[in-house]
Structure formats: C-alpha cells, structure tokens
Amino acid sequence: MAHELWDDIQYMVLGRDDPELLIPHTAYAGVLAKNRLSMIGKPLNLNDQPLKRVIQELPRLWGLKTRVHGRILDDSFVQFRFQQEEDMVSVLTQQPWLVNDWFVALQRWEDFPGENFLTFIDLWVQLRGIPLPYVSERTVRYIANTIGDVVALDFNEDTTPQIAFLRVKVRIIFTDRLRFFRRVRFQSGERAVVGFEYEGLTKICRNCSRINHQSRSCPFLVPPVAPYEDDDELLVPVWEEGHRSHTPSLRSDSQSSEPSDISSSSPISQPPHPSPLHNGIQAAAEQPKHNMFATNLRGKQESTGSNFARDSHVNHRFEVGESSKRKKGKQIASEQERNTRPRRKDVGVKFYTVPSKPP
C-alpha cells in the first residue's frame, strides 16, 4: 500500500512549479573542502562485493581504520573521506585493491567529473618473452600501448637488476576484455610472442576475459538453442541414385520421386507363399524322371518331335515343369509308357501310337 501511495505522489505536481530556492555558497563551502580529500570507489562485481562490506574492509586493509570514513553514495558507488592527503595519496599509489578477490576501482574526487570518470583501473602488467636484443624502454611502451595507456614504467636499461619480465602500469577500461598474448614482428624479421601477466588478478570471467563479472552471469554468453519438437526423429540420408556413390546426400521433399536403376516407385512386398500343389511338384522333381516319349527304335533313342498323335482314350501324364498347362484342380494321373515306332512319309518322320503287339 505504501509503495502504491508513493508511486501516485511522485507523479503529482507538488511544488514543481514553485520558484527556485537559492542556496548560498557559505552553506556548502566547508563540505567542498572535505570532499577534495576523498576518493570515490566502485566495486567491479557488485554481486560478490556488497557495498557495506567494501566500506568496512578497505580501511582495514589500508591500516587507516580510525582515520578514514566510508559511506555509501548509491547502488554502485562508495566514498572514502581522509583526514590527511598523504594517506589518500598512499592508497592511490598502492592500487589495485581487492575485496572478496575482485578489484575495486578508486579515483580521487572531482568537483565536476567527466564522462570517463571511474571507468578504468590502473594495473601492473608483467611483459614476458621479449627477445634480449630488443629489450628497451621504447619497445616496452610500444607493446604495452596495445593493451592500454601506459601510466608508469618500472624499467631502466641501466639500473634494472632483472629483465626476465618488465613491469609497466597500464590504464585498462574495466568493461574491456583483457589480452594475455601478443604476436610481434620486429623490423629485422624476427618474430616473438609476448605474454601479459596482470599482478593481483585472481578472478576473471572465463567466457569473455573481463574483470567485472563472473562466468555464470556473463552478459556475452550465447543463449542455448531451443531443441526442436521433433528432436527425437532420426534423420536418414538419401544416397545419390545412379552414380554408384558412397556419399550420402540429403534429398528435399520437392525433388522428383521417379524410379531409377536402384529404386522403384512400387512398394516392396513379401514373396507369395508356395501352394501345397507346388510343393508336391517340387518333391516329384527330386525323383528320377520318366520320358513320356520313350522310343523303341531298334535300341536307338531318337529325339522327341513336336508333332505326335494323342490317344483320346488314354489319360495324359504331365511332365515336371508343365504344371501351368494343367487345369486348376486336376490331379496328375499315371499311365503306362507307350511304345512308338516311326513310319516313313513323304516329308520327315512322324511318331504315332501303336498297339502293344506288332502288326
């Protein structure tokens, strides 16, 4: 109820049209002087860095718990007010500072901050992998400028005791992704890969390499693709027809379904079951065959002719393989073998039936 009442009130005209109230400079002159001895802080990962914990933890890390006053400004920023400028300068020099393993960006107070106010953080970076003949201040700056503006360089060609790595402080926009390697090619033609190691870096988004959020809340994650409703359907490739190819190719529905040399438009059906009559003929085929045209031509066998006379009083016997000539339902009748003998006529030899006794 209270929230609804507040929503109604804030859209009402309750003195907005009244004349402006002029506040004299003397009313806030002392506050401006104190604010100039303060700095504004911004936790980079608010999900893991509650503002109340930040204003309690940082003064303890600085060793200035009794000489620094911290307060929350809004949902994203905090302010630390110092009693002495030396303490504030020391804190700014020792940056970066971490709370709960995440960086806190700190910047000195500005009366009229610009657009770039508190949008960056200064980090010490170690450069590794520069070939010895090319190690110089100009080379270090040239390479470090590719990841950010160079703020300070902890390297001197005459006094630096070690050059296994070269330290440089770089101003990094904390909304940009960090780089960890850089391929370089010198004018002499030699190539190298220079690595960047950020001091104090303990946590980073493994997805986008940024330092202001965790991987589970990364805004640059690609949303998962929703599965199709028929995701369980098996997609079977169609082989190219007529090319004898072993490469499958997906065929669209709009393609023609004409039959080819390896496919047919007619459906495939099971072969018909053999009838009992056919089985009987097949079994009879396994028995020794008897020639229905056995000849008795003086011990010599002649080839059977296509023309012969049939006895109308004798039942015919069918040869195996001629079952298609038999009428449906007819049974195979057995008969005795008939003797035939040739008789000469004008043209060729013709076989005809004769009685069992010779004439």
From TrEMBL:
Residues 248-268 have a biased composition (Low complexity). Residues 310-324, 335-348 have a biased composition (Basic and acidic residues). Pfam families: DUF4283, zf-CCHC_4. It comes from the Eukaryota. Coiled coil: none annotated. Residues 33-111 form the DUF4283 domain. Residues 244-280, 299-359 are annotated as: Disordered. Residues 174-220 form the Zinc knuckle CX2CX4HX4C domain. PANTHER family: DUF4283 DOMAIN-CONTAINING PROTEIN-RELATED, GLYCINE-RICH CELL WALL STRUCTURAL PROTEIN 1.8-LIKE. This is Uncharacterized protein At4g02000-like. It comes from Camelina sativa. The gene is LOC104745993.
